[in-house]
């Protein structure tokens, strides 16, 4: 189900956050400082659209941003030791970017259609290794925000979202997997990828 269109500032990144996840960020460019201030003041329902960078895309034509973004809100902020602004965002749902315009300070704002998150799906017994491997990653790297958000290791959709945040694969691959009504395609992808990695270690 596609929801009615909304507008939100776009924050293109190589780091990815998906529904149910969190991400900590350092903000230093004036356009993004403004973005955070306006989001905290409730503009555009407080949303920031966390977008995936398309390195092959033309920046002048705003094609350096992949079409599926994640709507997130600021849940915490702080002044970092270096004096920069630090924020933590919580991701709510994905959205499809329809149009992009660039404001005078370079901040890009998109018109987006939010889409439904993947349906809640129990993690099957044969896929429990995906949750176990994910837990091991979080135990080894406790600084990852995924280890601090509310956790649902028995839910296939949640486990898939968290793996897609972490995997060092091309954003285009993640876009193709997200462009699906459920997590089954991602589950299949993860089964093969992680099993191959386990066999090779």
Reported by name, the CATH topology of the largest domain is Archaeosine Trna-guanine Transglycosylase, Chain: A, domain 4
Catalogue the unreliable spans: none
Please state the second-level CATH architecture of the largest domain.
Roll
- Return the domain count: 2
- The rounded Rg comes to 17 Å
CATH superfamily of the largest domain: LON domain-like
CATH class (first level) name of the largest domain: Mainly Beta
What is the strand tally?
6
Number of helices: 5
Order of helices and strands: EEHEEEEHHHH
Name the beta content range.
25-35%
Helix content: 25-40%
Our measurement of the CA-to-CA distance between the termini, rounded to an integer number of angstroms, reads 41 Å
What strand line-up does the widest sheet have?
1-3-4-5-6
Structural class by helix and strand composition: alpha+beta
How can the largest sheet be summarized? 5 strands, mixed, barrel
Shape descriptor reads globular
Mean pLDDT: 93
Pfam family, one: LON_substr_bdg
Protein name: Peptidase S16
InterPro entries: Lon_prtase_N, Lon_prtase_N_sf, PUA-like_sf
Domain Lon N-terminal: 1-198
